[in-house]
Amino acid sequence: MHIRSFALSVLLLALTIAAERANAASPSSSSSSSSSCRDLGFSSSLLASSCSSCDNLDTFSLGFMKSDCLRCCQSEMSSEERIMSAKSGRIHIEVCQCNWARYPDIKDFITQDAVNFPKLEVQYKSGVLPQLVATNSAGQEVDRKPIGAWKRDVLKEYLTTVFS
Question: Is residue 82 within 8 Å of residue 142, measured between CB atoms?
Fold first, then answer.
């Protein structure tokens, strides 16, 4: 139950920021391109669950943004679709060893389990929080997921699904 209220708090914060951006931009003149959707404050990670996030706008008295939200979420693939489409590209984990004490599950996965995923690359970058990054066959980034809160088993299961 705490996770659900945390998720709603995060959604409220994201939607509040989006509302401020939407007031600054003219929603009626925006197209549904990815860049204009991002300009309005909508990101693919917010809209990745079959546009269900848009339905929550009414709950937070942000119904005036619903049409833009629906237009934007329909113009972008879900996060899972982008990860799956990256199978022909590459998937790697970006992590900084300086953060390993804060993310023991990620450290354990990288040091003990990553070898079981020969297509997975681990990139060590100074100061970054743990992220799963997918690129297409042209090397362009198609998705980025923060994974710091993921448990080791969840990460293994997710990557097994992606690479199967």
Answer: yes
